[in-house]
């Protein structure tokens, strides 16, 4: 999905209480960033404009959510969509965190101590050319990386 550069995105993200700019420093202790750290922690990879995560998280405030993307413009729109959707439902934004990172290097920001219950990947980039297949968020090489921080013994990739 292509998106135009948005000048406002970076300053808005940096000022947001639910955006984390230093994800590598949170490795192993993500739960502590949430109002209720003991809740199950879920992950969306490649959240794009954030409609999915904003809806599922605002409907399930008994769970916590981290949403990751690589592009500031996407995350800026996701931040605005989270604010709008929580406001419509009159809910406090206390169970969602957005962060920017390259998911190909995800093990630098998540470890088994983070105990991720569930991963959502919606419409990941197809990378149709053979030599780029490994970049797909659902490539076997990627799935192996996710195993390191997923809670074992559940059906947990959606
Ligand atoms: C096709 S879009 C889908 C967005 C959203 N999940 C949806 O359903 O509308 C794929 C998203 O994954 C993100 N993405 C792709 N590869 C990524 C990577 N290696 N690290 C972080 N984000 C990535 C892109 O920036 C883009 O926002």
Briefly say what this structure is:
This protein has 158 residues and is an alpha/beta fold. Helices cover 26% and strands 15% of the residues.
List the SSEs and their pairings.
Elements: H1 9-15, E1 19-20, E2 41-45, H2 51-59, E3 64-69, H3 72-88, E4 96-100, E5 116-121, H4 140-147
Parallel strand pairs: 1-4, 2-3, 2-5, 3-4
Bound molecules: S-adenosylmethionine.
Characterization of this structure:
With 158 residues, this protein is of the alpha/beta class. The chain has one domain: Vaccinia Virus protein VP39 (Rossmann fold, 3-Layer(aba) Sandwich), CATH 3.40.50.150. The chain contains four helices and five strands, in the order αββαβαββα. It has helices at residues 9-15, 51-59, 72-88, 140-147, and strands spanning 19-20, 41-45, 64-69, 96-100, 116-121. It has a five-stranded parallel beta sheet. The longest helix is centred in the middle third of the chain and has 17 residues, at 72-88. The chain is globular, with a radius of gyration of 15 Å. The mean pLDDT is 94. The chain binds S-adenosylmethionine (SAM). Residues 1, 46-48, 52, 68-71, 74, 102-104, 122-125, 137 line the site of S-adenosylmethionine (SAM).
């Amino acid at each position: 999905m292509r998106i135009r550069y948005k000048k406002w995105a970076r300053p808005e993200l940096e000022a947001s209480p639910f955006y984390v700019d230093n994800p590598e420093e949170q490795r192993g202790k993500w739960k502590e960033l949430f109002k209720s750290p003991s809740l199950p922690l879920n992950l969306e990879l490649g959240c794009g404009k954030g409609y999915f995560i904003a809806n599922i998280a605002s409907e399930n405030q008994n769970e916590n959510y981290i949403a990751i993307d690589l592009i500031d413009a996407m995350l800026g729109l996701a931040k605005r969509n989270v604010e709008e959707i929580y406001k419509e439902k009159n809910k406090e934004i206390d169970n969602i965190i957005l962060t920017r990172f390259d998911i190909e290097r995800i093990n630098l920001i998540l470890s088994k101590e983070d105990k991720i219950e569930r991963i959502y990947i919606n419409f990941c980039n197809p990378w149709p050319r053979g030599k780029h297949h490994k970049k797909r968020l659902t490539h076997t090489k990627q799935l192996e990386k996710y195993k390191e921080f997923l809670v074992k013994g559940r059906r947990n990739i959606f």
